């Protein structure tokens, strides 16, 4: 959803800028697809499957420079922009093409602009993996928007005033799909990464991360196999032997989560919780039936028993 920053001088937002903002708003009103592009771009450069890296701070400067290219390709795919000759991207429309540049900061410093950017439109993006937040906005760069005192390369950031008033924010401080390993307690993270194989690492993650949704992207640093969903299914089977139910966002998985009052996973998410046989002391705790017995979400002190075959193998399609 476009955030119309209150100000008196609306002339900084011309027709092209507002029309381009509408493209993002109509095709991706909640910003989920844009956020997914940022997550995928970061993960592609981290290359967790081959390197085991999960922290962007481990990236070299030249690797950070590859992220905007990945974001650019994602924007072309999702929003049907095309590469430009003098600008990074072009929105083609019958009334005339709208070229714009892409300025991204995955660290705190604001993006910098050279004098060639003056008069043009720029899409500025901020992503903070440590906070799991991102922002994006459009600006028509004017000379007065640039801070005085350019660097040796002739670039300057936007002034604080321009940042507040001249940027048409599409999304501001919106949730970025979480880099789960980055935010885990170090002891939990070490135990997960110490697993000898893919299945062991994924199973250990869900032993330690319960009662919350986990995005599929969070498993990239744990799985080296070419069929990651097979790894998840095998981990789910191992967890059932320990009384842990792993659900994904299929219709059946979502319905089970809703019945048990667990967080409901989206199609690209998982949720794990311990179950136990229902007993009289469980009262009105919600339950599901498998193999003729009722099962409830286990609380501290409840008996841990393997789940029966009535709980089907994890299905991801």
TrEMBL record:
This is Type II restriction enzyme NaeI domain-containing protein. Gene3D superfamilies: DNA mismatch repair MutH/Restriction endonuclease, type II, Winged helix-like DNA-binding domain superfamily/Winged helix DNA-binding domain. Keywords: Endonuclease, Hydrolase, Nuclease. GO terms for biological process: DNA restriction-modification system. It comes from the Bacteria. It comes from Streptomyces showdoensis. Residues 20-306 form the Type II restriction enzyme NaeI domain. GO terms for molecular function: DNA binding; type II site-specific deoxyribonuclease activity. Transmembrane segments: none annotated.
